[in-house]
């Protein structure tokens, strides 16, 4: 392990078979630890037949409440838990959109080979802002057919493809759920490929997902949408290049719900139709008494007024706000 890996707990003994044992990686910070707890509680509760060897990676400057997370998961016997401190090399200038809802922690997954022993050949990566609502055994059993990783495409993501100079048929995947062939990642020196691309293309990369797509779109196996159902699928009028009947089927079959985007289920104003899933698993953790900081008397009044507005007007206001945020983001990335 390199000099930037400052601390790691001892790796637990492996008594489970390779078929049932799932090495799992989350990269988070102190503010997102609650949401990581919800993610993990949902994962463990819905997959009692699998054993998860979980690695939680954070920066050395982050003070995670490790004991609180351990207490939250103690009811689930199907896991082990390690905490790892990792410092991204200081000489690297990593692009980060100042208006984005993600942090520098998202880049940490690029160094995933540092967080698992040499005998680990496959890893499940999960973002912290998602909930698992069904068995992931079929996902874990996915035949990668020689691919470096498996992920779910974002349907109609022309902006990401165009920004990276890719072809439309290359697609653009969301990196919030990935199955990664760690053995091949090591052999290909994939970490170096991504870092080199970021260094050479700072004007194209907004965050590491861009670099992962640019570098590995041709060696990524595309997964069914149900394994990473992102926010656009749940909008009242989905702006997706899919038939309504297909969107409805994906909603019904969802196994992992990803609360990507700026409005999260831990916000009082969240209008995601599956936000109750977050609350359900939150109640299983030691963060069960959480109250959204934006749940103020004024906001309760605002939400009540909003409930009386016609859906068409609310959709218009939301669309305008998204366009404004995107315009500001592009202006700042250029300047």
Detailed description of the structure:
This protein is of the alpha/beta class. Helix content is 33%, strand content 16%. An 8-stranded mixed β-sheet has the order 1-4-3-2-5-8-7-9, sandwiched between helices. Strands 6-10 form a two-stranded antiparallel sheet. Helix 2 links the parallel strand 3 (51-58) and strand 4 (79-86). Helix 1 (33-45) packs across helix 9 (275-282) and helix 6 (190-200) packs across helix 7 (208-216). It is globular, with a radius of gyration of 20 Å. Mean pLDDT is 88; it is low at 1-14.
Distance between the termini: 37 Å
β-strand percent reads 15-25%
Strand ordering within the main sheet:
1-4-3-2-5-8-7-9
Tell me the structural class.
Answer: alpha/beta
Round the Cα radius of gyration to an integer and report it: 20 Å
- Which blocks of ≥5 consecutive residues have pLDDT under 50? 1-14
The major beta sheet can be summarized as: 8 strands, mixed
Give the tally of β-strands: 10
Percent helix? 25-40%
Query: What is the chain-wise order of helices and strands?
Result: EEHEHEEEHEHEHHHEHEHHH
**Average pLDDT for all residues:** 88
Shape annotation:
globular
Tell me the number of helical segments per DSSP (H or I, 4 or more residues long).
Answer: 11
């Amino acid at each position: 392990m390199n000099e930037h890996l400052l601390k790691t707990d001892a790796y637990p003994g492996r008594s489970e078979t390779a078929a049932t044992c799932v090495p799992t990686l989350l990269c988070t910070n102190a503010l997102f630890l609650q949401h990581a707890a919800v993610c993990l509680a949902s994962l463990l509760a819905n997959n009692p037949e699998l054993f998860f060897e979980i690695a939680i990676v954070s920066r050395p400057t982050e003070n995670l409440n490790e004991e609180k997370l351990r207490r939250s998961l103690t009811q689930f016997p199907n896991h082990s838990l390690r905490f790892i401190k990792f410092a991204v090399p200081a000489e690297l200038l990593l692009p980060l959109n100042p208006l984005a809802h993600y942090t520098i922690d998202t880049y940490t997954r690029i160094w995933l080979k540092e967080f698992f022993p040499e005998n680990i050949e496959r890893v499940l990566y999960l973002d912290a802002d998602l909930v698992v609502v069904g068995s992931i055994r079929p996902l874990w059993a996915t035949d990668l057919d020689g691919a470096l990783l498996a992920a779910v495409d974002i349907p109609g993501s022309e902006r990401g493809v165009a920004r990276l100079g890719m072809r439309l048929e290359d697609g653009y995947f969301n990196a919030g759920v990935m199955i990664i062939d760690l053995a091949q990642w090591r052999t290909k020196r994939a970490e170096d490929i991504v870092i080199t691309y970021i260094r050479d293309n700072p004007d194209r990369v907004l965050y590491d997902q861009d670099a992962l797509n640019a570098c590995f779109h041709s060696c990524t196996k595309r997964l069914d949408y149900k394994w990473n159902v992102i926010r656009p699928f749940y909008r009242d009028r989905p702006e997706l290049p899919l038939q309504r009947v297909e969107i409805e089927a994906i909603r019904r079959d969802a196994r992992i719900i990803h609360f990507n985007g700026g409005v999260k289920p831990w916000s009082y104003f969240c209008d995601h139709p599956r936000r109750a899933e977050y609350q359900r698993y939150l109640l299983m953790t030691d963060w069960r008494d959480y109250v959204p900081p934006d749940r103020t008397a004024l906001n309760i009044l605002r939400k009540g007024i909003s409930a009386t507005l016609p859906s068409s007007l609310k959709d218009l206001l939301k669309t305008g706000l998204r366009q404004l945020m995107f315009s500001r983001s592009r202006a700042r990335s250029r300047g």
